[in-house]
Specification:
- By secondary structure, this protein is α+β, with helices and mostly antiparallel strands.
- Helix 1 crosses helix 3.
- It is about 35% helix and about 30% strand.
- It has a single domain, classed as 3-Layer(aba) Sandwich (Aminopeptidase).
- Strand 5 and strand 6 form a beta hairpin.
């Protein structure tokens, strides 16, 4: 991702529905997001990527592996499609499957976990389709895990 990707990201989070879905407690400014992107770019423990449409290269979301623990070969995945008119088209599932390939095949991870709001049925569907299994469910949060096959 680059600095130009900060503006759509902030715009997406200004939508209350999207902010709620992703659990955003505070919406960063564009300047703050640029700073985050630069941090991710320098970090050896984070891989944050944009999700773009193939034919137009338009950014529609973000995906990543965060807090990679190289000694334990584990990371936490995160994804969201910010362009609402691109929801329910399979982009999230495709992006997550590609991220899992990168994580397991290229980064040699053994386990990828994620947390999702238990009421977010769209995300739960995507994660189950990508092979994640529920590990624990709390009142508002479902912890899911996918292990290298």
């Amino acid at each position: 991702m680059n600095e130009a990707d900060a503006l759509p990201y902030v715009r997406w989070l200004q939508d209350p529905e999207i902010a709620t879905i992703v659990g955003a407690k505070q919406i960063p400014s564009v300047k703050e997001r640029i700073k985050q992107l630069k941090h991710f770019d320098r970090s050896s423990n984070d891989l944050v990527l944009g999700i773009e449409l193939r034919d137009t290269a338009k950014l529609i979301g973000t995906i990543g592996l965060r807090d990679i623990d190289w000694s334990k070969h584990i990371a936490e995945a995160a994804i969201f499609i910010g362009e609402k008119h691109e929801w329910n088209k399979g982009y999230g599932t495709e992006a997550m499957k590609n991220l899992l390939k990168i994580g397991f095949k290229e980064l040699n991870l053994r386990k990828i976990k994620l947390s999702v709001n238990s009421s977010n049925q769209r995300a739960l569907h995507v994660f189950k389709k990508a092979g994640f299994k529920e590990e624990t469910t709390r009142k508002r949060l479902t912890i899911m895990i996918k292990e290298s096959e």
